[in-house]
């Protein structure tokens, strides 16, 4: 049997977490949950069989019961163990963060981007030619107080600018928009010390195709320098 790599296992655990059945399905539609329970159990045993036997399998056994039970405690316990395994693999390998998101999982994509936004303390620099009004309502409420937001955009300025004006007045966050030609990639730079590339426009997430959020490490200085220079040379849009 071929041993699965830690990176593959981390992606599998992420997908298991995303696909967990609803609480009501464990009691109301148990047959629907059986494939997920089997997959989750196999995944956790591949990560740490001893821990899985002690901390995971007992909850799986309880969830296989039929009847009108409240399984909220067991479901929550499984999620805790899955997130523990996911975090353990990330810390163990200390590799750049790379998150895969399936087609149609817009909520998952937005949640991952929002988590990156919440880590900022000083500066958020978004680079996406198609940033629009939906981007403002979807992501900017997650910006920590005192963090400056810079947006390098181009194609949707007629809808982006008024949305920014309204939001900035209400949230009292310093926001600046500039426009430039000659760029097509999508990045978010956090506090000028980390950079993440999105495989899709931030406004679209993954409506039509799967995508990923990938931390840029080896090429970070080159990416940062390129877009900071482009920012200086770009045309002010707002304020």
Q: Which CATH-level-2 architecture of the largest domain?
A: 2-Layer Sandwich
CATH class of the largest domain: Alpha Beta
What characterizes the major β-sheet? 8 strands, mixed
Walk across the major sheet and give the strand order.
Answer: 1-7-6-5-2-3-4-8
- Note the gap between the termini: 60 Å
Global shape: elongated
Low-confidence stretches: none
Quick tags:
2 domains; 9 helices; alpha+beta; 8-stranded mixed sheet; Endonuclease, Chain A; 239 residues; single chain
Structural commentary:
The chain is of the alpha+beta class and 239 residues long. It has 2 domains: 6-93; 98-238, 2-Layer Sandwich (Endonuclease, Chain A), CATH 3.30.870.10. 51% of the residues lie in helices and 16% in strands. It contains 9 helices and 8 strands. It has helices at residues 6-18, 23-28, 30-47, 49-63, 72-93, 106-118, 133-139, 157-171, 220-233; strands spanning 98-101, 123-127, 148-153, 175-179, 187-190, 194-198, 211-216, 235-238. It has an 8-stranded mixed β-sheet, with helices on both faces. Strand 3, helix 8 (157-171) and strand 4 form a beta-alpha-beta unit. Helix 1 (6-18) runs antiparallel to helix 3. The longest helix is centred in the middle third of the chain and has 22 residues, at 72-93. The radius of gyration is 21 Å and the shape is elongated. The mean pLDDT is 88.
């Amino acid at each position: 049997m071929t041993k699965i790599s830690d990176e593959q296992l981390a992606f599998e655990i992420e997908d298991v977490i995303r696909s967990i059945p609803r609480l009501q399905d464990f009691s109301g539609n148990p047959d629907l949950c059986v494939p997920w329970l089997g997959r989750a159990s196999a995944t956790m045993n591949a990560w740490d069989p001893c821990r899985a036997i002690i901390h995971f399998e007992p909850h799986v056994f309880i969830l296989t019961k039929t009847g009108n039970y409240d399984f909220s405690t067991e479901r929550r316990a499984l999620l805790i163990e899955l997130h523990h395994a996911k975090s353990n693999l990330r810390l163990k390998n200390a590799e750049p963060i790379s998150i895969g998101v399936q087609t149609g999982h817009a909520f998952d994509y937005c949640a991952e981007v929002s988590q990156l936004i919440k880590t900022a303390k000083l500066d958020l620099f978004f680079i996406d030619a198609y940033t629009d009004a939906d981007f403002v309502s979807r992501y900017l409420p997650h910006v920590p107080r005192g963090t400056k937001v810079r947006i390098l955009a181009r194609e949707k300025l007629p809808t982006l600018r008024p949305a920014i004006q309204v939001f900035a007045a209400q949230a009292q966050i310093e926001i600046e928009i500039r426009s430039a030609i000659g760029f097509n990639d999508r990045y978010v730079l956090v506090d000028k010390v980390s950079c993440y590339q999105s495989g899709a426009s931030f406004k679209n997430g993954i409506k039509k195709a799967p995508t990923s959020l990938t931390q840029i490490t080896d090429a970070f200085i080159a990416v940062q320098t390129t877009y900071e220079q482009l920012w200086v040379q770009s045309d002010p849009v707002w304020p």
